[in-house]
Amino acid sequence: MKQVKEYARERSIDELYQEDPERADANVFGRKTDVGRRGFLGGAGLAAMSAAVGGAIPFAANMPGGLIPAAFAQSTPPTPTVGTSPAAPAAPKGPQHLNFPGKSDKLVVLGDRPLVAETPEDQLNDDTTPTNKLFVRNNGQTPDEAKDPDKWSFEIDGEVNKKLTLTLGELKSKYKPVTRRMVLECGGNGRSFFTPQARGNQWTNGGAGCPEWTGVRLADVLKTAGLKPSAVFSAHYGSDQHLSGDASKATVSRGVPVKKLMDENNLIVWQVNGEPLPNINGGPVRLLIPGWPGSLSAKWLNRIWLRDKEHDGPGMTNFSYRVPIKPMVPGDKGDPKNFKILESMPVRSIITSPANGDKIAAGTKEIKLRGAAWAGDLTVQEVDVSTDFGATWTKAKVSKPKNKYDWQRWTATVKLPTDGYYEIWTRGTDSRGVMQPHMAGFWNPQGYGGNAMHRIAVLVG
Ligand SMILES: Nc1nc2c(c(=O)[nH]1)N[C@H]1C(S)=C(S)[C@@H](COP(=O)(O)O)O[C@H]1N2
Ligand SMILES: [Mo]
């Protein structure tokens, strides 16, 4: 009786697994587990799971108990519901696709006020991310399109020898332009893989893209203004309005220590992939501060303020863009004193082909994988893939970055011994030897730095 009542409520599969993975297994797949490895079970439980994922599971013996099959965990938003029948998980709710001029309808909306849309991993299969597939992360209202982009101006003030006001026209004529392929990645990328769920947009791995940016070096412009010795930190501002409509409030304003600020890879950009930067991605002019959370890369740039202390604008304090110093109890409130600013983004590898949920012709014995990997300020040393729930791993061929902060494309060929349901996993290792974890670690209330290994489901036959 008790169980019937419990499952009469709509629950997400993640919720079920969060509370008690072994019991969730039993409820979802119609069997009781008393050992942690599913393969020892066989029989009815395995049959039910195979039915649920759509095929035999050749490597079932390696499948960790309590692991949500990628076939269910795949969808965005990542909260498919389990119906009233415990034996049959209901089809996941479909993702909401973006309908926006200049953007691909393959982008998935995570929020519409403010507008937030991510690029599913399989849509990041191009070596250079096309502009129509570049994710969108607004914190406030999208401003109106600038009528005369070359007249767009921004200010550099605060701890500088000479306060500057520069127009886009002047930027173009006075400084040497550079073009770089660089990753822009939201600080919350990977957030949806935290358990329990963390506050904020539930990004899978799609809060990232790697287009070609054209602009001038931020450091060149800052040298014209001349930093005073008292300048220790920056504060970046854009012209977008706060959702409340209060013009005195900034939507988000973040900054970096001067050492990072003067890095030659930081750009003030006005072009992406050779075209004017679209309004939705911060045009006519934005900052691009690669390697660190995307929130530093102010869109609709109108001010860079040099400060004599750490910036305290919206997005700088408390738990915002901060990670725990000492691990905290997942789900706890947390103590701001135990938090530090998230700087370099962690290593991440994604499979961009095939797509999660792809069906492959019966009898296929080998498939080619493609993906991308990047690691904040660092490079990627190694990418591995597994088709047997992590029992064995194959090294992928990883390309060199075109320039610093470019992502690294990778390829691998894997064998699939028989028809059936497979999960393909990938994990990246950065140039310091740090590897992605199986589960998002260092839980924090707002879910930053989540870089669990990426996995997809494929069905052969
Ligand atoms: N002015 C302004 N700049 C901003 C934001 C914003 O809301 N307003 N969002 C930031 C965040 S959180 C991210 S991840 C990136 C996203 O850039 P994109 O929308 O071009 O993908 O822009 C950053 N710059
Ligand atoms: Mo972000």
TrEMBL record:
Organism domain of life: Bacteria
InterPro entries attached to this UniProt entry: Ig_E-set (IPR014756), MoCF_OxRdtse_dimer (IPR005066), Mopterin_OxRdtase_euk (IPR008335), OxRdtase_Mopterin-bd_dom (IPR000572), OxRdtase_Mopterin-bd_sf (IPR036374), TAT_signal (IPR006311)
Gene Ontology biological-process entries: sulfur compound metabolic process
Domain Oxidoreductase molybdopterin-binding: 141-313
Protein's UniProt keywords contain Repeat: no
GO molecular function, one term: heme binding
Compositional bias of kind Low complexity: 81-91
Protein name as catalogued: Sulfite oxidase
